[in-house]
């Protein structure tokens, strides 16, 4: 299978910023490695499109990889697409009561990774706790796998609307504005909120988890730098599957809406600000608007393919990302409620990490077992923005728990320019 949607992520990955999704799950009890091994093996039977090896012909392709998926007893994981991972783009690891998934972000996104974890939790918890869990809504080994799960919907999409291009001023740069320096590994601050309480707050104030977190971050930045004239512009990630009418696709299908904290919004009370952000989301998630974003991404991948060498393709990707970096202040991503079904009661903690962002914070939101988990993935150590965000929670009577602080250490992906 020739790569297409995967290309931008592939040519973006490097040792400093490996394009990897890492999901860390803390279970109720110590991990049984034998049960985990059996559960991973049967889970991967359901996801053959994740059992692939990256090879270089005239261009990069995925071929079937029948080697066993690697599981290690560590928190570090192994290098993907290497001998250590049996040349897979996915691996698992465990330690104490933690299970960890590492997967190439070009292979899938949070939505696709959640499906895989849902299957794994079904098999692991059923065997580990000797219970019969309901299988409703869970993909299991032996299921018929439709073409929709396999086929790249971006490659297949045609007659896409044209995206209107217009000039935008550079956004506030979080790192430069605060005079911060990049740390070697990046840092993740993990905060948890009560899901029922935060949802109640959203309902009362006309927000949603994604828009409200984006709004609190916008307000926090504005209070830190009240005299800065650069726009505070946050991208809230959008799942493109609905617009493409391909809900089963496994690919990385992430677009975004721009939430700009304009002067006319700043003077409004919180509930009016939340309504303004929701209006921005509504306008930018209309089908034609999302598909126009898909068209833009498709054009980028076609441009990458038009280049003959890896270095030329890396150059194209770096240029595109330099433009995006100028236009964005921060990114907020919310896949939606995890809904790990009956297995969720055995989960005590959950983390969703991705690669270190450039000059800004990425907030990954996950909702598991009655908690919203907010992972502040940042390229600098300073908690200045975190503290300002937590002040917003305090001022609005929202209780939180700062769970932990970790170095952001993700496994490398072994490609020619990373050797």
Which of globular, elongated, flat, extended, rod-shaped describes the shape? globular
Order of helices and strands: HEHEEEEEHHHHEHHEHEHHHHEEEEHE
The oligomeric state is single chain
The overall strand count is: 14
Measure the end-to-end span. Answer: 24 Å
Radius of gyration: 21 Å
Query: How many H/I helices?
Result: 14
Instruction: Quickly give the structural class.
Output: alpha+beta
Tell me the β content. 15-25%
What are the segments in which pLDDT stays under 50 over at least 5 consecutive residues?
none
* Biggest beta sheet summary: 7 strands, mixed
Rounded average pLDDT: 96
Question: Strands of the largest sheet, in order across it?
Answer: 9-8-10-12-13-7-14
Notable traits:
single chain; 419 residues; alpha+beta; 7-stranded mixed sheet; 5-stranded mixed sheet; 14 helices; 14 strands
Structure report:
This protein is an alpha+beta fold and 419 residues long. 36% of the residues lie in helices and 22% in strands. It is built from 14 helices and 14 strands. The strands form three sheets. The chain has a seven-stranded mixed sheet with strand order 9-8-10-12-13-7-14. A five-stranded mixed sheet has the order 4-5-6-1-11, covered by helices on one side. A hairpin with a 2-residue loop joins strand 12 and strand 13. It is globular. The relative contact order is 0.19. The model has no long low-confidence stretch (mean pLDDT 96).
């Amino acid at each position: 299978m020739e790569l297409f949607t995967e290309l931008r992520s592939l040519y973006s990955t490097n040792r400093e910023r490996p394009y990897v999704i890492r999901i860390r799950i803390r279970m109720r009890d110590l991990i049984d490695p034998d049960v985990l091994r059996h559960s991973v093996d049967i889970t991967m039977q359901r996801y053959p499109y994740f059992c692939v090896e990256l090879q270089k012909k005239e261009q990069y392709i995925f071929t079937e990889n029948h080697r066993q998926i690697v599981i290690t007893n560590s928190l570090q994981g192994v290098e993907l697409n290497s001998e250590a991972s049996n040349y897979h783009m996915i691996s698992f690891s465990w330690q104490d009561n933690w299970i960890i998934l590492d997967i190439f972000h070009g292979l899938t996104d949070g939505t696709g990774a959640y499906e895989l974890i849902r299957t794994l939790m079904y098999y692991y918890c059923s065997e580990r706790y000797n219970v019969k869990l309901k299988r409703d809504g869970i993909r299991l080994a032996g299921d018929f796998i439709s073409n929709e799960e396999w086929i790249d919907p971006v490659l297949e999409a045609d007659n896409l609307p044209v995206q209107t291009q217009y000039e935008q001023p550079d956004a506030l740069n979080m790192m430069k504005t605060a005079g911060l320096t990049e740390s070697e590994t990046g840092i993740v601050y993990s905060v948890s909120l009560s899901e029922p309480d935060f949802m109640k707050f959203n309902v009362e104030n006309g927000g949603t988890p994604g828009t409200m977190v984006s709004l609190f971050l916008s307000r926090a930045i504005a209070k830190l730098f009240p005299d800065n004239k650069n726009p505070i512009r946050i991208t809230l990630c959008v799942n493109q599957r609905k617009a493409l009418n391909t809900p089963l696709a496994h690919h990385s299908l992430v677009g975004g809406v721009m939430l700009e904290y304009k002067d006319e919004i700043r003077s409004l009370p919180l509930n009016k600000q939340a309504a303004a952000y929701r209006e921005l989301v509504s306008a930018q998630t209309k089908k034609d608007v999302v598909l126009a974003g898909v068209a833009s991404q498709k054009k980028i991948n076609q441009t990458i393919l038009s280049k003959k060498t890896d270095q030329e393709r890396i150059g194209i990707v770096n240029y595109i990302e330099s433009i995006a970096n100028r236009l964005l202040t921060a990114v907020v991503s919310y896949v939606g409620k995890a809904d790990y079904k009956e297995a969720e009661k055995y989960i005590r903690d959950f983390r969703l990490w991705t690669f270190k962002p450039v000059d800004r914070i990425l907030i990954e939101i996950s909702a598991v077992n009655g908690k919203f988990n907010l992972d502040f993935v940042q390229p600098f150590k300073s908690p200045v923005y975190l503290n300002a965000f937590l002040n917003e929670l305090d001022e609005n009577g929202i209780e939180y728990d700062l769970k932990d602080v970790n170095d952001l250490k993700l496994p490398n992906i072994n490609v020619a320019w990373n050797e």
